[in-house]
Amino acid sequence: MQGTSPGLFIPDTVFEQLVQNQIKLLLKPSIICVDTVHDEMQRIIEKCSEETKRSFNRFPNLHKKVCDVVEKLIDKQIEPTKFFVKTLINVEVGYINARHPDFNEAKLMIDNKKDIELKKSNSLTKMKFLNKQIKIDPSDPCYDVS
Hints:
Strand content: under 5%
Oligomer: single chain
Order of helices and strands: HHHH
Number of domains: 2
Number of helices: 4
Low-confidence stretches: none
Shape: elongated
Number of strands: 0
Radius of gyration: 33 Å
Distance between the termini: 69 Å
């Protein structure tokens, strides 16, 4: 990332590389999803064909032709859909929006956690220091509780 934007909780280039690798992992499941949707649409077409067959009893050739056209239309769109999904993944890999409000909220949460840990650490250090500086003598009359 360039410019004067504040860094995230890790260096920007490392963050971008990690995110890009994770986005690239989405490609294979996305293509599988396209194939699954295609198969499901084919099953829906077959079911619709069976249910409408009686309506087309007088025109069996028309029924067959309509089913063929719909199947070819869906088959014809599978490759452009896969290309679109691949392009979309490449676009997402190409630009990581590290200025998104979700990242800012995460950075604030991490900064707050670090501040709390630092305060705890400082207070523990102070307590250790004070315990070393103040020597308590139980025989001292000031500490007589009776």
